[in-house]
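wait is this the right file?? whatever heres the structure
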C-alpha cells in the first residue's frame, strides 16, 4: 500500500510513501537522455528526457517505482490489487507493459497535458517483465510543476485517465469512489467547530483539535486518502527550499505506516520502507527511509545527462544521530 502527493509551495514537490513488508533492493536511479530505452511492443527511444527516481534495475532496465523527468513531470505507480486489469495485445493500440509505463511517459511528456496525449491510444498490456517478475497490479498518478495531476487506471472497463483535483493517490477503491468518499469529511477543519448540534448551549471543550475529531486515522487506503488530502490542503508554505521539503515530508509522515501495526501475513507487517519527494522545477530528488530519518538528496543536474548509461546511488539506510555533547 502506498500514498503519493503533489504539494505546491512556490515550486511543486512530488513523490510518495512506499509501504511494503519487504525491501526490494531499490536505488536512486538516473536515466540519462541517451540511455536506450527498449519497449516490448513499441519503437525504441534512443534519445529522450532524462529522469530520476527510486527504482530497481534488472537486465540494465530501470523498473521505476516513481520518478520525475527534467521537464518537471512526476509519476508514481501504486498498488491497485483487485480493480487493476491488463489486456491482451491489441492491434492499432500503443501496447505498453505496466513495468514500462513510467519510463515511457517520463521519457516523452513535458506536461500532464502531453502525458494525456501519449496515453490517448494506450493499452496497458498483460506483459510480464520476466518469468520470475510478474506484472504488478498498479494504478498511477502523474503530476507536473504547474500542480496539475491525473490518475491513470486500467480496469475491466478499459483505460481511464481521471483529472485529480486533490493531487493525492493511495490504493483501492477506484479513484472516482475515493473522491466520493471525501464528501463524508467536508466539515473536517483545522479550526474549532461551531456548535450546530445544540445552538445556544455552551458545550464543554476538553481538547484542542476538535475540528479534526472525525478525521480517519487507519492505515487502510481509504483512510490515508482522506488524511493525506486534509493535511496537504492545509500544509503551510515555507520561505525556502529546506522549509518546503521539510513540510512536504511532514505531509507524508501523517500517513506513514509503522512496523508492527499492519499485519499482511502471520508475523509479517507492512511498513513505510521509504518516503521520497522531488522538486519538479529544480530536478532535485529527496528521500528518507524507515531506518534513516535524515533527508538525503540527489540533484540530477549535477550528473552528465547526455550519458548513455544508467547512473545509480545506493539508498542511505543508516540512521545518523547528531550528538550535541
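ok assuming it is, sequence goes like this
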Amino acid at each position: 500500500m502506498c500514498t503519493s502527493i503533489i504539494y505546491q509551495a512556490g515550486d511543486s514537490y512530488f513523490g510518495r510513501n512506499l509501504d511494503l513488508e519487504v525491501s526490494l533492493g531499490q536505488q536512486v536511479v538516473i536515466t540519462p537522455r541517451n540511455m536506450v530505452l527498449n519497449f516490448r511492443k513499441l519503437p525504441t527511444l534512443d534519445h529522450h528526457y532524462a529522469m530520476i527516481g527510486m527504482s530497481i534495475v534488472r537486465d540494465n532496465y530501470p523498473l521505476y517505482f516513481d520518478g520525475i523527468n527534467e521537464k518537471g513531470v512526476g509519476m508514481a505507480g501504486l498498488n491497485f490489487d483487485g480493480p487493476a486489469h491488463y489486456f491482451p495485445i491489441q492491434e492499432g493500440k500503443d501496447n505498453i507493459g505496466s513495468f514500462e509505463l513510467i519510463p515511457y511517459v517520463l521519457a516523452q511528456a513535458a506536461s500532464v497535458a502531453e502525458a494525456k496525449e501519449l496515453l490517448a491510444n494506450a493499452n496497458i498490456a498483460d506483459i510480464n517483465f520476466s518469468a520470475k517478475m510478474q506484472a504488478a497490479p498498479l494504478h498511477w498518478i502523474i503530476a507536473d510543476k504547474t500542480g496539475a495531476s491525473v490518475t491513470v487506471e486500467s480496469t475491466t472497463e478499459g483505460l481511464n485517465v481521471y483529472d485529480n483535483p486533490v493531487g493525492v493517490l493511495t490504493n483501492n477503491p477506484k479513484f472516482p469512489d475515493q473522491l466520493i468518499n471525501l464528501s463524508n469529511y467536508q466539515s473536517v477543519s483545522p479550526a474549532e467547530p461551531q456548535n450546530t448540534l445544540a445552538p445556544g448551549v455552551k458545550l464543554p471543550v476538553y481538547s484542542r483539535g476538535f475540528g479534526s475529531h472525525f478525521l480517519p486515522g487507519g492505515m487502510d487506503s481509504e483512510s490515508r486518502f482522506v488524511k493525506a488530502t486534509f493535511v496537504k490542503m492545509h500544509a503551510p508554505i515555507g520561505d525556502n527550499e529546506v522549509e518546503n521539503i521539510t513540510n512536504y515530508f511532514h505531509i507524508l509522515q501523517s500517513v506513514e505506516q509503522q512496523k508492527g501495526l499492519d499485519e499482511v501475513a502471520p508475523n509479517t507487517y507492512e511498513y513505510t520502507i521509504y518516503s521520497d519527494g522531488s522538486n519538479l522545477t529544480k530536478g532535485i530528488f529527496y528521500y528518507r527511509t524507515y531506518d534513516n530519518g535524515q533527508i538525503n538528496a540527489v540533484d540530477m543536474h549535477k550528473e552528465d545527462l547526455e550519458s548513455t548509461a544508467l547512473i545509480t546511488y545506493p539508498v542511505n539506510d543508516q540512521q545518523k544521530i547528531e550528538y550535541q555533547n
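The chain has a mean pLDDT of 96. so i think its the right one actually
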